[in-house]
Design brief:
single chain, alpha+beta, 7 strands, disordered N terminus
């Protein structure tokens, strides 16, 4: 429970912001095996499903299609909605006055919802992915399940492939 403070949005009384993003599990079959498209960021050793935030007044499904296509270089077709995941994270924000950092640090708590869709490969080329990730790679379902950095994304993958 935050301590009472005379100032709003301080370290003791953080501000809470609700945000959302959308993404997908992009799948294909090769020689009767399921493959999933994962995105890799080498600096953080991060393996993730493609997802991102809306632009303007996009719907979750449109955001998921756009983000998946941009991040992977693949044209995608949505098969069905999979699920939503929710998590909370915080950031310490430093204030700024006239381009100088000032001491009015505050904590912002983000409550995030992610809308997930099952998608299939509908053309394109992974070599044409944007620069948000270093590598985009087709990986077998079982390997992908073990590679994903975040456990909630592994659970999303399980919902896509109830094996």
């Amino acid at each position: 429970m935050p301590r009472l403070s005379t100032q709003l949005n301080t370290l003791e009384n953080p501000k809470t912001i609700h945000i959302w993003s959308a993404g997908g599990v992009i799948m294909r079959t090769r020689q009767d095996n399921y493959e999933v498209l994962l995105c890799h960021r080498k600096l953080w050793s991060l393996w993730a499903l493609p997802k991102g935030t809306p632009t303007g007044h996009e719907s979750p499904i449109y955001t998921a299609i756009r983000e998946a296509s941009e991040e992977t270089g693949i044209n995608v077709k949505v098969i069905q909605k999979l699920c939503t995941t929710n998590y909370t994270f915080s950031r310490l924000i430093c204030g700024q006055q006239r381009n100088k950092v000032v001491k009015n640090e505050r904590t912002v708590i983000y409550k995030k919802t992610v809308y997930w869709f099952l998608m299939r490969d509908n053309g394109g080329n992974i070599e044409n992915h944007d620069d948000e990730f270093d590598e985009v790679k087709w990986i077998s379902y079982f390997e992908a399940k073990n590679l994903l950095t975040h456990k909630n994304e592994s659970k999303v993958l399980e919902k896509a492939f109830p094996i």
